[in-house]
Design goal:
There is one protein chain. By secondary structure, the protein is mainly alpha-helical. Helices cover 81% and strands 0% of the residues. The longest helix is centred in the N-terminal third of the chain and has 19 residues, at 107-125. The chain is globular and about 65 Å long.
Length: 363
């Protein structure tokens, strides 16, 4: 069925269409099946008019209505395994899948597709093509998220060199590569290289797009860098700049920035202000129904760490217990965060007045 459908696409379109449009129609058909006959007619008209942006937007709206995001991924994976697509379409499809898995935080699957996409895109389009560099960025991001920092560094460096050669470093993708490479250097404790890359990223982003929300993402990472090197006052100053930009741009999604500010305040010994912010972000996530999310889990843990530092162990204990339950699902038992939760829980139990009753319950 899929082979025939692809042949129909090639035969029946009045004008030549892009590979991306072919992928859009194939995935739509495979994902939704017979229920999309009328939708296909609309989509075909967009494609005949060569209105690719409208076609893709139309497809995305159907995915959202039907809740078929992961189903579309499975359908496209089956199509790729058949081996009927030309390399140019297959390469873009593999990159599409890599990005879908990445956005779902399924980094092992994303890594697999990103590696295939990189090899195919280099073969089909060459090492200077923007899609090849996009595949490098996705691949390196996956390696970073999986803790393979040295491998990620090498891939980011290749992407940075390629982008510099093509754009002279005057490109938003170059700014993002610099930001991501700086993150890797922070993870490797090579802080001497990180700050310059963050500053380069900020400069390019401001020159090209102004101080928009994308600019604040790098500013946020710079603040995490200041946290790592114990320059807490510098971090607080920059995070306030970021929060000001977000407020000016009308972006209410600032909880992660408030989280980081609370941590910086805690480390700078502004405990009252930090506790107020921790409570504020926890309540906001609870109100938004985000109590199963990794961010809420980390929020609980960071607040418990403040209470632990203030020797308020009985207050800290239920927060860490809750973080352990959520973290088991959100991160997994082998994640470094979960190990840290356990270590802190042990410290709290050792100092808690209820440690004896806890031991008795487990016996």
């Amino acid at each position: 069925m899929i082979k025939n459908f692809y042949n129909i696409i090639k035969l029946n379109f009045i004008r030549p269409i892009t590979n991306q449009a072919c992928i859009t129609l194939i995935v739509l058909n495979c994902s939704i099946g017979q229920s999309v006959d009328c939708n296909n007619s609309i989509l075909e008209q967009y494609l005949r008019d060569n209105n690719i942006r409208a076609a893709i937007s139309f497809t995305d709206s159907i995915y959202k209505q039907k809740g078929l995001d992961l189903q579309s991924i499975c359908s496209l994976e089956r199509l790729l395994k058949e081996g009927t697509l030309p390399d140019s379409i297959r390469a873009k499809s593999e990159l599409y899948l890599a990005n879908k898995y990445y956005n779902s935080r399924r980094h092992r699957e994303s890594l697999e597709h990103a590696q295939i996409a990189r090899d195919l895109l280099r073969k089909v389009f060459g090492p200077e093509h923007n899609l090849y560099n996009a595949s490098l960025n996705t691949l390196a991001q996956d390696l970073k998220e999986l803790g393979k920092f040295k491998e990620a560094e090498l891939v980011f460096l290749e992407a940075k060199r390629n982008n510099m050669k093509v754009t002279g470093g005057k490109d938003i993708q170059f700014a993002r590569i610099c930001n991501n490479l700086a993150d890797v250097y922070c993870a490797l404790n090579r802080f001497d290289k990180a700050e310059e890359l963050y500053r380069t990223s900020l400069h390019v982003k401001e020159q090209l797009k102004g101080r928009n929300n994308d600019y604040t993402k790098t500013l946020y990472n710079l603040c995490k860098f200041y946290l790592a090197i114990t320059k807490y006052s510098s971090g607080i100053k920059e995070i306030d700049v970021a929060l000001g930009i977000l407020a000016k741009n009308g972006n209410p999604d600032s909880l992660e920035f408030l989280d980081l500010k609370a941590i910086l305040l805690h480390k700078a010994q502004y405990h009252v202000e930090a506790e107020t912010l921790f409570k504020q972000t926890l309540q906001a996530r609870e109100k938004a129904g985000q109590t199963d999310k990794p961010e809420y889990c980390l929020n609980l843990f960071n607040y418990s760490s403040l209470l632990q530092d203030k020797s308020r162990f009985n207050e800290a204990r239920p927060l860490v217990e809750k973080a352990l339950v959520i973290g088991k699902k959100a991160f997994g038992l082998e994640h470094p965060y979960y190990a840290t939760f356990l270590t802190n829980f042990g410290d709290i139990l050792t100092n808690s007045t209820s440690v004896i009753s806890f031991i008795m319950q487990k016996c």
